[in-house]
UniProtKB/TrEMBL annotation:
Family to which the UniProt record says this protein belongs: Belongs to the CRISP family.
Stretches assigned to the SCP domain: 66-199
Name of the protein described by the UniProt record: SCP domain-containing protein
Taxonomic source organism: Clitoria ternatea
Function description: Probably involved in the defense reaction of plants against pathogens.
GO cellular component: extracellular region
Keywords of the record: Disulfide bond, Membrane, Pathogenesis-related protein, Plant defense, Signal, Transmembrane, Transmembrane helix
Keyword ATP-binding included in the entry's annotation: no
Pfam families: CAP (PF00188)
Keyword Transmembrane recorded: yes
InterPro entries from the UniProt entry: Allrgn_V5/Tpx1_CS, CAP_dom, CAP_sf, CRISP-related, V5_allergen-like
Entry-linked SMART domains: SCP
Length: 203
């Protein structure tokens, strides 16, 4: 199980309480051996070399839609649990998220973009992290949110969760990047309209 730590920051642009999430794990991810990599390279070369002009053409896949749903479905499940309308994927927000994720590629720094949108960010060590795992880390903060007091439990974080279930938020776009030098995986989701306004309940 990954060790999870979190720290709250305040986004001065939207005056909303936003947070970043830190995940670390001691479980190593497997790597192919040099011999296996060489074997695969030779095999691919032979397959390409023997391909004829009559090769079967397969229909193009839609990986971006699948990628979007990995972020979207678990967030909408959290919203459905409190009877909120689902978020829709927004390509403009996704482009913004990817632009910012690319800025973090070289350092994997847990820093917010300070842009005009609500924002949740995530870091995990290694390269095996999936979008649904980032969302799960955010949504698990539900246990620390007290709706009656509209606050987090003392010493705990819940702002990632409240952004996910902010009722006025309609659109989301997310991105993921594997950072250079084995620094880990960085993910970010941007929300419009933004949530987590001080003194307001999420729903």
């Amino acid at each position: 199980m990954p060790l999870i730590q979190a720290e709250k920051i305040v986004d001065n642009v939207s005056h909303s309480q936003l947070h970043h999430y830190i995940n670390t794990t001691t479980q190593p991810f497997g790597h192919h051996s040099t011999k296996m990599s060489h074997f695969i390279s030779v095999l691919l070369f032979l397959l390409l070399a023997t391909t004829t002009t009559h090769a079967t053409i397969f229909p193009a896949q839609k990986p971006r839609r699948s990628f979007a749903n990995q972020f979207l479905i678990p967030q909408n499940a959290a919203r459905a649990a409190v009877r909120l309308r689902p978020l829709v994927w927004d390509q403009k927000l996704a482009h913004y998220a990817q632009w910012y994720a690319n800025q973090r590629r070289n350092d994997c720094a847990l820093e917010h973009s300070n842009g005009p949108y609500g924002e949740n960010i995530f870091w995990g060590s290694g390269t095996g992290w999936k979008p649904a795992q980032a969302v799960s880390a955010w949504v698990e903060e539900r246990q620390w949110y007290n709706y009656g007091k509209n606050s987090c439990a003392e010493g705990q974080m819940c702002g990632h969760y409240t952004q996910v279930v902010w009722s006025n938020t309609r659109r989301v776009g997310c991105a993921s990047v594997v950072c250079s030098g084995g620094q880990g995986t960085f993910m970010t989701c941007n929300y419009d309209p933004p949530g987590n306004y001080y003194g307001e309940r999420p729903y």
